[in-house]
Structure formats: C-alpha cells, structure tokens
Amino acid sequence: MKKDEIAIVDDGPINLMILKKLLSPSFLIRAYKSGAELLDSVKKGIQPDLILMDIIMPGMDGYETLSELRKDPDNQGIPVIYITALDSLIDEEKGFYLGAVDYITKPFRPGIVLARVNAHLELKHARDWLKNQNEWLEAEVKRRMVENQLIQDTTLNVFAELVETRDNDTANHVMRTQNYVRIIAERLQKHKRFENHLNAEVIERIVKAAPLHDIGKIGIPDAILLKPGKLNNEEYEVMKNHCKIGGNAIRLAINKTLSGNQAENKMGEVTALSFLEEAEKIMNYHHERWDGKGYPEELYGDEIPLSARIMALADVFDALTTVRPYKKAWRVDAVVDYILEQKGLQFDPDVVEAFEAEVESFIQVMSQGQPRE
C-alpha cells in the first residue's frame, strides 16, 4: 500500500530532524527549508498529501507560502498544519482564513503530532473519495444522457425514414427541411420579438421535432399518397388529415407515457418529452396560414405556434424547389419571389424576413440534396 506523503517546511534543522524521525516509519517525508522550496516542488508536480509548515521563516513566511499555494485550484485540497512555538504571538484566525486546518506547537509531543496528522489525512482521504465518487456520478450521468440522446435521435430518424419510404417523391425532404428550420430559427433568435423565447434549448427542440412534421402521412391511403399526379378535391381533403393523424398520435403517446408511470417521475418525463410536445404543434399546424385561411383549424397570426410557422415556410420552399409527379421544380428566384409575395398572407412576416436574410444558406442546403431536374 502506498504511503501518504508529508511535506515538512521549517528553516530549523532540529525541527526537521525531529519531525522526520517521528513520521518516517509511517509516511514518506519530504523536507524543505523554505516556503519557496515547497512551492517550487509543487509546481513541478510533487504534490504532498499533507503539509506541516512553520509560520515564522526568513523571506516568505508560512502565511505568504499558504496564500501562494492556494492560488492554484489543484492545491486547494492539501491540508496544511502550522507549526508554532508555544509562546509565539501568532494570528490563528489569519491562518484558518488562509486555509490552514490546524496548529501544532513546539516543543513537539509525539502523540499529539501523530494524532493530528492521522486525523487530517483521514479527512483528506474521505474528501478525495467523495470527490471521486461525485466525478464518477457526473461522468455516468453525462454518459447516460448522451446514450439516451442517441437513442432518441435514432428513433426520430427511423420515423423520418419510414415516412420517406412511403413517399418516394420526397426523398431527403425531412432532412432538408430540418436544416431550413434551423437556419430560420437561429436568424429569428436575433430578433427582439423572439430573443426571450428562442434560446438555444428551444431551437434544438424545434429542430429535433421538425423531421416528424409529416409522420401523419403514414395514415394516408397509398392510392392518394402515391398518386402519380395532382390530387382532386376529394383526395386533397383526405391528404389534409395527415396533420391531425400525426398530432393525435404524438399526443396519445405522450399521455400514455405520463399516465403509465409514477407521479414523482412525471417532471423528468415532461422535460424529456418536450421535443414531442413541439413535434405535436408542428404536425398539427404546419399547414396553417398567417391570414387564417389554412388548415386544419384556420388559426390566425400568432395563434399558430412559432415552430409551425417556421416549418410552414421551410416545407413550402422545399416542395417548390423539388420535382413532384404533378410538377417540375421551380427556379429558386421564382420560389423566393413567391415567398416574399406571401409575406403576411401565407407566412409570418418575421419568418419571411428571416428567410430573405438567409436565402443563400437555403440554396447551399438545397444544392447538397437531391439533384433538381
């Protein structure tokens, strides 16, 4: 078993000899004739488990030495016991304030010295153990959070891929729109109207939820979803149901999760499921219009959740710039003109302004996706 290391700092050779003889059988001893020697040794990485230090020394005294030692956070946990003559006028309060843990008086009484040294070493070992345990727990919590995040993200990608598998004409649509959503949200974060709401956590939640916006299409019959042409009015009404199909499915899943667990766990679950709450809003309302003429509920203006207003523009941009069975891809400049014309009509004016400022970013994302025909 490795011995604890004790540093003795004293300019008196007799004191060094006495303490070294007393402590050597049980501990590894390093002796220093000045505070400067101790500090130089510690800077080189020789860190003792405990320090016995005289207060009155030529040059740098014990108070100054301890003050310098404590400036390095790595040395905060080293217990320092001051050595002082029985009749010396010392400022004990100052010593404790600087971080000393105890005083030992000269002439030394072996039993007292050993008792004090062992007691403070045991305390140090206990603190070190707790620190190591806390660090392990923090690392374990972080590891599990990363693991849960990976599982969550993988699940989202599975859902997104499932939708794309059923709707071959929108390959990579969910990934492109997710990027468009992030671009707009991060631009809106700089807007005074949204700066108090769109913090980094909220933006991440919206971006994470975005790929689920069309998951309700799973409930649309193949004859309509995969129709190689434009939908008639009746078919279009059926297609519009995908908003509520997706939103209702998410709401049902959230409610079942919460009701199926103990009440004391619900707060943590609400936090963990917050991105699904955002996904529900996006699914339900990404086809609403700023002027109130959208679907499924004909919400108007700010009645529409912000995440859905952002998704609405991202969705339209991608739909117009890609090929569909019933249309060719629009030129980018024509799509930009259309979106600007719909400012205050189909789209939130602030969302349109954010888009206008980030058109080049949109084009970059688009160019990395599926080739246009």
At a glance:
By secondary structure, the protein is an alpha/beta fold. It has 16 helices and five strands. It has helices spanning 13-23, 35-43, 62-69, 92-98, 110-166, 173-188, 200-209, 222-225, 233-239, 242-259, 266-272, 274-285, 306-321, 332-341, 349-357, 359-367, and strands at residues 5-9, 28-32, 50-54, 80-85, 102-106.
Radius of gyration: 35 Å
CATH class categorisation of the largest domain: Mainly Alpha
Query: Secondary-structure element sequence?
Result: EHEHEHEHEHHHHHHHHHHHH
The name of the CATH superfamily of the largest domain reads: Hypothetical protein af1432
Helix content: 55-70%
Gross morphology is elongated
Mean pLDDT value: 86
The percent range for strand residues is: 5-15%
* CATH overall fold name of the largest domain: Hypothetical protein af1432
Sketch the major β-sheet. 5 strands, parallel
Strand arrangement across the biggest beta sheet: 2-1-3-4-5
Q: How many domains is the backbone divided into?
A: 2
